[in-house]
Fold each of these.
Amino acid sequence: MNSFTPFPGQPSTQEVVAFHRTELSVIMSLYGRMVAAGEWRDYGISTLRDVAVFSVFKRTAENPLYRIEKRPKLRNKQGEYALFGVDGQVLKRGSDLRTVLRILERKLIRAVD
């Protein structure tokens, strides 16, 4: 039996890295609090073969303020999660998403007059 492929030469299913529901729950919880505080306004999600990226924007037409990346291949080396700043500098790496995002949680703590 011959199977039909709509685009010969290309695999019909490619493995991509994506955020799991529990990971997205952690990220979206932080995102909601930052939107409520007026710090963030928009986000974008990219799923690629080696990495999943959650980008956070102050305004839609700008470069992302922060990028949260998931790279499963780095799980046993540097940790699969990384937080990048606006200039591409690594702010935090680790195996636990909540620990990596803790840096951003500190931005929500402000002195009240």
Amino acid sequence: MSAPSDDISFDKATKLGFHRLFQYIQGANLNSSRIRMTTPVLTSVVPDAGPLHSSAYVVRLYLPVKFQSSPPVPLPELKLHLAEWAPWCITVRKFSGFAFETTTCVKEAQKLALSLSRSPWADATGFNGTNAYSIAQYNSPFRFIGRINEVWVDLDGSKVKGCESSLVDVF
């Protein structure tokens, strides 16, 4: 399930998008179904989609397998959208701490971009995907130590050996 936001702040978009998704899993859907929380919570940066060509964001939450074939319809006021993902290839950089836009996310995305520019996949990172990068957060905000986050960058699977769509599995 996804919560799009044209807010110009990663931190605010993540907070507000997650709040809408949390309401949905707590029963703010047409079935009044409670849905088990899954991880990660994924915030994707969509370049030039926000006001004045700034970035916009999409906050996503995976639905448990039980609800994937027939997810409860969210209440309209939540402005959530069902997002079905086809298999795709990503490259990942793991980092710890809290995922704040200016202090961690941008720096970690830059580190991943630098690492990729020196790798055999450098020409696969210019993929025409919709996201510049995504931040995956795996822990509750109440966990202060041992936090796990990742920055994800989409790769063009046709340019990465072993990553062709026919060879990728979704779990």
Amino acid sequence: MENNFFKSVIDADDAPVVICDLEHTIVYMNPTAVKRYEKRGGAALVGRSIKGCHNGDSNDKIEQVIAWFKKDKGNNKVYTFRNEKENKDVYMIALRNDEGELIGYYEKHEYRNIETMKLYDME
């Protein structure tokens, strides 16, 4: 039952979430990610390498971040990109098991736009 709660949180996120294992295989994409990367294959990307979606320089940086994550259990978040057009910052986040061992990673998008929704607008 616990996994359903975690999946629900990820699936409800307005930002794309692509989760990868340490072999760089895409193991999960939330609905926002599937839609965002539709032109690159969408849901069909699950099971494929994230490295196929990046250039050589980006793949080298991914490897550098993974090596840094492995150095210390406290190394869990790296700022990787600023997208001015979408007004967002992008991070790589370590995923660890209960013992703190690195098991994968994901890319986190944090949008910086001021919220336009009214407070508690439920109509």
Amino acid sequence: MALQIHDENRVRTLTLDRPDALNAFDEALYDATADALLAAAEDPDVAVVLLTGAGRAFSAGTDLLEMHRMSTDPDFQRGRHGFPGLLDALVAFPKPLVVAVNGIALGIGATVLGFADLAFMSSTARLKCPFTSLGVAPEAASSFLFPRLAGHQSAAWILLSSEWLSADDALAAGLVWRVTEPDDLMAEARKHAELLARRPVSSLVAVKHAMTAPLRAGIDAARELENAAFAELMGGPANLEALAAFAEGREPDFTGLPG
């Protein structure tokens, strides 16, 4: 099972567990994580969800080998929820979501921070939003949520450059709340999650709804724009070159491609 689920003290811990693939999301993991969030939302014994990764990565984002098959194989079978369904579950999740970034975080591994109510990060972890290096557009309403967290210019650099951010950079940008030593990460994240979980669920839900409901229109509009741009660019010359380069273990060469 690529997603481990553990309940303790009204905190449900979801651990992405594909360490050999750096916890990259394939369709099965998208489905499992979406199902777990939907179940936690309805479970009266769960007050808080804590999301983290197993091994040296938090998540390497979408599984690019599967993404390549998806873009080239007309018979590829998509999941029940897939990436859009996971986003739907994140947007609608009514309880506090605590994220503990234990290692490298790319793509959705980074953009999920836009939906975190509290985010903790290991001092040795790094973030990257690699969309321009893949020849595609942003995702997960990051074009709307990241400027709110980081400010326009920091968000522009993160989304346009496809460069790595250190934990200190992520903290300075407001993408995470606390940075800890690697061995202290889960204890610190769990301490805060369990403190929240001692509060009444009804109050937690009311506070989160008041904070997030005004953002729904902006999130929906951003997702629509991002999805349209992603659909236009995916399978295009730049994206195919990026995916081919990944499969061949080389750097992509975008020079000479049409603008």
